């Protein structure tokens, strides 16, 4: 990381004595100023609510010092906005990322009932002319849910159109599920989520690699949509490309797949062991998707290379009809040219954002959506052409 | 009186006043309201009143919301015209009684009294009629956004922008208007409200636009700034923009203000707007944890840029940026429209339109006064004005009056231009025939 120029530090100090501290994690003046403002608002709020009155300046100084050591702002402030929700963040649980927010919003827009002008992924069986309330609920399962942000936002976005919903989140860490429950009650209390969310949303603690509860996920054997933002960073990438603040303060289990004998990396001959560790969750997720008869599968991946590797796995299962790769902001820029990508000898054609619904007799009329989170790639979406 | 001078003239504090009495005023004269109503306007008022009568007859037979709305809008004019005509008709009768040599002295004195009172009434009534004829501003009933930006004058301008922001917030608080700060870019610490680079105040009460319309323009300040070490008076300027705030879609029928309807004047094609989200280079997602939530919208055809970074939520920043962009574009389009109309009028009125580029008001600290250059009013309660008190009301009312008389002038000019045009055409037809 390049050293901060002393002129910048001097300039910052002249504006506010605490700004140089915030420049260390922020690296530029405008975002440091913003963070200072948010921290100040928080400090003022804390000073008003706590009974033994500590001066807000003291609180502000303390939090600036913490921030300068790399502590994520969201852990200091305790929250992170996610769509129109406010997600509580606590150490030990991964902070929701803006990329996840973007794909969740986009998925929700695709899952809306077919009356919407956009191509809909809404399950086929519910398109019959029945009143919506009498239909079976739309079931969404989120694996590796963390703060519960994806199920909560999906519920907030879908519930106005889809009265009958059932969304579950699963995580291995008991801390996560407790926090997810807290988030649920918090957002109902602030009015961001409707009252019925309490019944329609649930969070469970489970290990998705253990075979004990794999027959029934969260009490149900079939789900319409499977979403996951699994740990996808390889050990090598964790040491090199991952930022220091993330490495020191955020839980490693949510970032790097934990490999033991049970979850042995699958045999992919031409990639080395390191990337295999990074990809460890995807074969299992594909397997679970098949088990629960999911019609839509959305997984977040790290970069384009990983997306291509996962598509390789996907093609091997021969169970999926179409596949798309989404860039960071799916749906933001439309009308880009289609691009060709070669995966394991088979050509893949880009057709974003529409999904080509081929009349295949396969039982699984389903699509896989992969979210890549590296902005440098020019490609937007991809449809497996088999 | 003769004053002995002991030094050069410029050393005296009121040197200009000593030189010669000032017999002229700059841009500060308000024209007296026309006592009699122009025949062009009268014709228009009669036509509209006839339309109102017809509409109310239709409404008696069957009720229709659209018609009722239209009739309601016209009822003002019909009422004003009725009052004016009643007064106007009684005038010749009284005149006759007064002039008749056979009337006795008592009756004559009564008639004289009546005559003067009716004349007074008539001038008030004709003013009413004129103002009722002025079409309402299309944004008048909307809530508004007030944008404050320092102009020439560096830090001092930024300081004064902060003063103006405080003044408007206090004014809203006193008036019970809901105001919230949508955007605040402060130049210095990013923490205080003293020096402002840009502030957008959202005033969320209906017809706030009408209330604040008179505030748009350049506000000039003359004072010894806090940043000045040698005690010199500086002149700086702050520009204030008043934009219509479009309510959230789907609330009610908005007519021309419906920005979602492609046929509307204020429609923005989403494909014309480029959205930029600030993103760091390199790996994203789980690898990094960004707090940068800034959003920048660029309307490509007009090159209008709105950047928002106040909220931690990108979602909220985006919504607010759209709100400001919509307001700015609507005002731009409205300005273009008004410019066209002014071009048509310029031949008749001969006075250039007061644009937002001209200074509208001066705040002078050393004389503790505020002068509005449009209505020509000067108020000496500077502190009260800066606290948004009654004196600010006084100034705003006088400017509104000024705007009204100007609108009436414009209306008369329009009518006359239309009349001249039709006359010319008739002449041409006559010549041809």
UniProtKB/TrEMBL annotation, chain A:
UniProt keywords, alphabetically: Methyltransferase, S-adenosyl-L-methionine, Transferase
Keyword S-adenosyl-L-methionine assigned: yes
Key word Transcription regulation present: no
Classification via CDD domains: AdoMet_MTases
PANTHER family, alphabetized: HEMK METHYLTRANSFERASE, MTRF1L RELEASE FACTOR GLUTAMINE METHYLTRANSFERASE
NCBIfam families recorded: hemK_fam (TIGR00536)
Protein name: S-adenosyl-L-methionine-dependent methyltransferase
Upper lineage: Eukaryota, Fungi, Dikarya, Ascomycota, Pezizomycotina
UniProtKB/TrEMBL annotation, chain B:
Keywords noted in UniProt: Methylation, Protein biosynthesis
PROSITE patterns for the chain: RF_PROK_I (PS00745)
Domain Prokaryotic-type class I peptide chain release factors: 279-295
Keyword Protein biosynthesis in record: yes
Coiled-coil residue windows: none
Family indicated by similarity: Belongs to the prokaryotic/mitochondrial release factor family.
Annotated protein name in UniProt: Prokaryotic-type class I peptide chain release factors domain-containing protein
Organismal lineage: Eukaryota, Fungi, Dikarya, Ascomycota, Pezizomycotina
């Amino acid at each position: 990381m390049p050293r901060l120029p002393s002129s910048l530090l001097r300039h910052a100090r002249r504006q506010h004595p605490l700004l140089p501290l915030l420049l260390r994690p922020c690296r530029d003046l405008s975002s440091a100023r913003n963070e200072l403002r948010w921290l100040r608002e928080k400090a003022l709020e804390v000073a008003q609510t706590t009974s033994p009155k500590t001066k807000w300046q003291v609180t502000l100084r303390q939090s600036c010092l913490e921030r300068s050591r790399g502590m994520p702002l969201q852990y200091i402030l305790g929250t992170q906005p996610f769509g129109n929700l406010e997600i509580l963040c606590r150490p030990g649980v991964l902070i929701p990322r803006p990329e996840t927010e973007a794909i969740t919003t986009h998925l929700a827009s695709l899952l809306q009932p077919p009356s919407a002008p956009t191509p809909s992924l809404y399950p086929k069986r519910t398109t019959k002319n029945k009143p919506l309330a009498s239909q079976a609920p739309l079931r969404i399962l989120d694996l590796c849910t963390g703060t519960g942000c994806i199920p909560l936002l999906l519920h907030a976005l879908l519930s106005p159109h889809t009265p009958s919903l059932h969304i579950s989140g699963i995580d291995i860490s008991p801390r996560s599920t407790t926090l997810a429950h807290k988030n649920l009650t918090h957002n109902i209390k602030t009015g961001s989520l409707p009252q019925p969310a309490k019944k329609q949303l649930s969070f469970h603690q489970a290990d998705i690699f253990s075979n004990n509860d794999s027959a029934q996920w969260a009490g149900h054997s079939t789900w319409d949509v499977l979403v996951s933002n699994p740990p996808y960073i390889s050990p090598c990438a964790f040491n090199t490309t991952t930022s220091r603040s993330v490495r020191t303060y955020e839980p490693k289990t949510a970032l790097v797949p934990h490999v033991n004998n049970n979850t042995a990396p699958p045999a992919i001959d031409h990639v080395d062991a390191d990337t295999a560790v990074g990809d460890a969750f995807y074969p299992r997720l594909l397997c679970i998707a098949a088990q629960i008869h999911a019609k839509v599968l959305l997984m977040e991946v790290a970069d384009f290379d990983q997306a291509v590797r996962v598509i390789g796995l996907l093609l091997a299962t021969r169970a999926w009809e179409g596949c798309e790769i989404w860039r960071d902001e799916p749906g933001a820029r439309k009308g880009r040219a289609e691009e060709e990508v070669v995966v394991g000898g088979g050509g893949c054609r880009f057709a974003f954002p529409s999904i080509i619904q081929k009349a295949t007799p396969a039982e699984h009329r389903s699509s896989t959506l992969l979210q890549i989170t590296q902005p440098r790639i020019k490609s937007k979406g991809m449809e497996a052409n088999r | 009186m003769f004053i002995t001078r002991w030094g050069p003239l410029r050393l005296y504090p009121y040197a200009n006043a000593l030189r010669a009495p000032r017999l002229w005023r700059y841009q500060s004269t308000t024209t007296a309201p026309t006592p009699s109503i122009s025949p062009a306007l009268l014709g228009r008022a009669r036509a509209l009143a006839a339309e109102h009568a017809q509409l109310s007859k239709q409404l008696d037979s069957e009720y229709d919301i659209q018609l009722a709305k239209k009739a309601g809008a016209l009822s003002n004019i019909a009422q004003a015209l009725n009052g004016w005509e009643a007064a106007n008709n009684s005038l010749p009768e009284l005149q006759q009684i007064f002039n008749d040599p056979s009337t006795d002295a008592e009756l004559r004195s009564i008639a004289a009294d009546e005559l003067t009172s009716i004349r007074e009434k008539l001038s008030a009534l004709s003013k009413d009629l004129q103002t009722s004829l002025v079409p309402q501003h299309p944004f008048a009933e909307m809530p508004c956004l007030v944008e404050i930006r320092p102009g020439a004058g560096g830090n001092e301008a930024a300081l004064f922008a902060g003063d103006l922001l405080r003044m408007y917030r206090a004014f809203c608080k006193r008036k019970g208007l809901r105001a919230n700060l949508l955007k605040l870019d402060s130049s210095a610490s990013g923490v205080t409200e003293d020096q402002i680079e840009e502030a957008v105040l959202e005033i969320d009460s209906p017809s706030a636009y009408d209330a604040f319309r008179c505030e748009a323009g350049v506000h000039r300040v003359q004072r010894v700034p806090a940043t000045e070490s040698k005690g010199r008076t500086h002149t700086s300027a702050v520009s204030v923009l008043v934009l219509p705030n479009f309510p959230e879609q789907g609330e009610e029928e908005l007519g021309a203000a419906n920005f979602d309807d492609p046929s509307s004047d204020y429609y923005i094609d989403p494909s014309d707007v480029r959205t930029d989200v600030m993103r760091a280079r390199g790996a994203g997602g789980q690898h990094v944890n960004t707090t940068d939530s800034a959003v920048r919208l660029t309307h490509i055809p007009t090159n209008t840029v709105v950047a928002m970074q106040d909220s931690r939520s990108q979602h909220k920043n985006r919504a607010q940026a759209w709100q400001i962009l919509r307001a700015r574009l609507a005002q731009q389009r409205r300005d273009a429209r008004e410019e066209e109309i002014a071009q048509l009028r310029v031949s008749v009125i001969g006075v250039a339109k007061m644009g937002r580029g001209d200074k509208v008001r001066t705040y002078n600290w050393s004389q503790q006064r505020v002068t509005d250059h449009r209505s020509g009013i000067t108020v000496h309660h500077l502190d009260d004005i800066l606290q948004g008190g009654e004196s600010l009301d006084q100034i705003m009312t006088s400017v509104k009056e000024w705007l009204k008389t100007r609108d009436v002038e414009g209306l008369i000019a329009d009518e006359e231009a239309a009349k001249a045009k039709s006359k010319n055409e008739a002449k041409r037809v006559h010549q041809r025939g």
